[in-house]
Design a protein that fits this description.
alpha+beta, Arc Repressor Mutant, subunit A, four-stranded antiparallel sheet, 6 helices, globular
């Protein structure tokens, strides 16, 4: 694949390599999503107070919805868990998003997967990490 797809672009001088965390514009940035694939990045788009994250290969098989702790593609499952927890901790500290949204933004399958991963990695619950902002709001509050 690299030989017939990427190499011609590289040879033509059209390829611009960037760091794993790279701002394309004020609204669009790449953020490292290590774990699923070495060098993998997610695309974060922010505009008018809204944010979207394009994660790419967050899950690989429908069975991961029932068993999110199964590693079916993370090149380094421990690094992937630490990355996901780190992203979620940042969102817990910097936003008032409900935990269900933070779970999705943090590349977890769902809130339960996030809680189990927090317990395993940090030995704490997300609500305890939220700092002095209080507990995670339930998803039903989202409008």
């Amino acid at each position: 694949m690299l030989g017939d797809s990427v190499k011609p672009i590289f040879d033509a001088g059209l390829l611009h390599l960037v760091d794993l965390d790279h701002a394309i514009s004020p609204e669009i940035r790449l953020t490292s999503s290590i774990g699923p694939t070495p060098g993998h990045v997610s695309v974060t788009i922010e505009s008018e107070g809204e944010q979207a994250v394009i994660t790419g290969d967050m899950t690989h098989h429908p069975c991961q919805m029932a068993h999110p702790d199964w590693s079916l593609g993370d090149s380094d499952p421990d690094a992937a868990a630490r990355f996901r927890v780190g992203r979620a901790v940042k969102l817990l500290h910097e936003t008032d998003l409900p935990c269900a949204e933070i779970a999705i933004e943090g590349d977890f399958c769902d809130q339960t997967h996030m809680i189990r991963t927090f317990r395993r990695v940090l030995e704490r619950l997300p609500s305890a990490v939220r700092d002095d902002k209080g507990h995670c709001r339930p998803a039903a509050v989202v409008t």
